Amino acid sequence: MVTLSKLTPEAVYDILSSAAQKLGLEVQSAGEGENGEGESGLSVTKEALEYLSNVADGDARTALNCLQLAFKACRAGDSRIDLSVMKENLKRAHVLYDRKVRRFRFEKIARFSRLF
Asked: How confident is residue 48, by pLDDT bands cut at 50, 70 and 90?
């Protein structure tokens, strides 16, 4: 049996910044220009990545999924992922998770009731 331990926020930040570069995002300080200058024309602030790495509670998959949601949202609108955009996408990810859990529970109860 393999037990995985939580990653440190610094390790999650490194993973997120690497993923941001692979997505073509430029990682900027909070005070830098508003326009994205990465390959995709989008940017993400260091502040947003630091926030996400702390909120992820050592789980890189959770952090990467939220970064991907923010990236998709920004391609549709703004050119910069800042702290407010990241917080909004965390709320959206939580709502999507809640819907999946509710649907799974409903289907499980429905299957169980068919047995009787």
From this structure: very high
